[in-house]
Amino acid sequence: SFVLTQPPSVSVAPGKTARVSCGGSNIGSEGVHWYQQRPGEAPVLVISDNSDRPSGIPERFSGSKSGNTATLTISRVEAGDEADYYCQVWDSSSDHIVFGTGTKVTVL
Amino acid sequence: QVQLVESGGGVVQPGGSLRLSCAASGFIFSNYAMHWVRQAPGKGLEWVSFIRYDASTQYYADSVKGRFTISRDNSKNTVYLQMNSLRTDDTAIYYCAKDFLGTYPPDYFDMWGQGTMVTVSS
Questions:
Q1: What is the pLDDT of residues B93-110, one digit of tens each?
Q2: Binary contact (A43, B95; C-beta < 8 A)
Q3: Of A54, A95, A102, the CB nearest to B110
Q4: What is the C-alpha separation between B104 and B20, in angstroms, rounded?
């Protein structure tokens, strides 16, 4: 199965915009999903199928994909957005689910 | 209330076995595929296994294939993970997670349990 590469960390000031990238060789053909994991908690789905936002997730969270890179964007960042974020795809060539390496978003 | 509750974690010696359970409520369990995902201390998420809504298909991560077995009992709204030949690098929080769909291909996880800790140590 292929590797999904994310930056280890992203720092952002409150009220600004955070962008988390997720790159992989076959990502262009797959739907990309994003999870937020606050310390000590289970992950929560924040974006599905590249850009769909589940009910209950603030509109400040959005997703996009271009070529082999997907991006999670958090607008007007708040202190409560500080968490680890993971991208995820289904790798049809290996019948495996693959998670990205994870990005710690720190609110300054 | 939609809920997944894991149980069965604990401390086990290398080479030992453990069976995890995940009880589901608040949705029609028999309609959905289920997964196990784990997270070693201080590490990222690692997918472990998938089972289709009718248990007809299972997939495993390479790291657990041949040692772990996923199963489900739709009459009890429960999914299981039988873990044999445990190794120290199996130490992790194990989460069960509901798939958005029931069949193939696996999709995304729209609900997670709170996890159960498995520690493999002598």
A1: 999 999 998 787 888 999
A2: yes
A3: A54
A4: 24
